[in-house]
Amino acid sequence: MHFQAVIAQKMEVDFAGKTFSLVDGQTGEVFTIVVFVAILPYSQYIYAEGIRVFGDELINMLFAIRPGLHYLPLSSCLIAIA
Questions:
Q1: Rounded distance, CA 14 to CA 22, Å?
Q2: Which of 4, 8, 49, 54 sits at 20 to 30 Å (Cα–Cα) from 39?
Q3: Which residues, 6+ apart, have CB-to-CB distance to 9 below 8 Å?
Q4: CA–CA separation, 82 vs 45, rounded Å?
Q5: pTM (2 decimals)?
Q6: For 30-35, which contacts have Cβ atoms below 8 Å and span 24 or more sequence positions?
Q7: Whole-angstrom distance between the N-terminal and C-terminal Cα of the chain?
Q8: What span, in angstroms and rounded, lies between the C-alpha atoms of 13 and 30?
């Protein structure tokens, strides 16, 4: 399937797959981790990062978007949350 994409128009973001647990080796504390994915449809650049879950999905999304915006080559675009 082919999608029309316009350069620098939007960045698509979502959480991918299931959550998993990570144990802090120093404290023994168990954290829930989710994989955040951001893609620029035109260039197909992808940014993915495992982030700690804080309970509220909006807070998780805002926490995850910031490094993605820093990493991906953007000037201005619409962010489409799936």
A1: 21
A2: 54
A3: 41, 42, 77, 78
A4: 17
A5: 0.70
A6: 34/60
A7: 18
A8: 26
Q: What is the secondary structure of the chain as a DSSP string?
A: ------TTSEEEEEEEEEEEEEE-TTT--EEEEEEEEEEETTTTEEEEEEEE--S-HHHHHHHHHHHHHHHS--SS-EEEE-
Residue with tokens 């700690």: 52
Quote the pLDDT of residue 41.
83
Nearest-angstrom CA–CA distance, 35 and 20: 9
With tokens 């804080």, the residue in question is: 54
pLDDT along the chain (82 residues), means of 10: 71 86 94 88 86 78 74 61 60
